Amino acid sequence: MHEPSQFIHRFEAGDRPAAPPLLLLHGTGGNEDDLIPLGHTIAPGAALLSPRGQVLERGMPRFFRRLAEGVFDQDDVRRRANDLADFVAAAREHYRIAAPIALGYSNGANIAAAVLLLRPEALAGGILLRATLPLDQPPGADLAGRPVLIVSGARDPIISAAGAARLAEALSARGARVEHRNLPAGHELSPADVTAARQWLADRDRAPA
Ligand code: MLT
User: Fold this and answer.
1) Pocket around ligand 1: residues whose beta carbon is below 6 Å from it?
2) Per-residue pLDDT tens digits for 101-158
3) Atom of ligand 1 at shortest distance to CA of 132?
4) C-beta of residue 167 within 8 angstroms of C-beta of residue 188
5) Which CATH superfamily is domain 9-206 in?
6) Which of 25, 26, 28, 105 most suits a substitution to test ligand 1, by most atoms within 8 Å of the C-beta?
7) Which residue is catalytic, options 86, 94, 187, 190?
8) What residues have CB less than 8 Å from 151, skipping those under 6 apart?
9) Does the annotation mark 187 as catalytic?
């Protein structure tokens, strides 16, 4: 099978096959290189799949279009979430990996949330750093038992506490096992994010399947 080509991406095979693969989803203006170091730190030895968002906003890659800050183009969110889920399916077959846990930051966390709500089969769970609810009318979805960590910044000027809470509620209502942490941080990631994500993943590794 050909290398999955829908998205420019990086793939690192990892050397710990038992570790769940991570789908790395960068923030606005980032690219497929950005979260590789974070992936290595929080999930040593895990396979890493890292696509680049296909939307350009004044030259900055994103995963879906927005009409203004915090105002998302709903049709585009749905379309791009489906494209990303299709890419993940093709990449899983090509690289022979299990369903990944998404590790997304900001816009990357928001597209991960959209994929969980629209195409739940694509992901084994998610670590959503500075995320909000990206869909005005999230559809019903079966997320039974799917583990999700949401890490918000109490002083985040971009993602409101209400938006993050709505996301946690929407995922929980569909059966996901949501842990929502609020850090004394802004929109930027802090060392406490890394610790929280790493600890959450390690706890999952130890938990019986
Ligand atoms: C977005 O998806 O637009 C985020 O919430 C903010 C950002 O990525 O800058």
Assistant:
1) 27-28, 66, 106-107, 110, 132, 158-159
2) 999 999 999 999 999 999 999 999 999 999 999 999 999 999 999 999 999 999 999 9
3) 5
4) no
5) Alpha/Beta hydrolase fold, catalytic domain (3.40.50.1820)
6) 28
7) 187
8) 127, 128, 129, 130, 181, 183, 193, 196, 197
9) yes
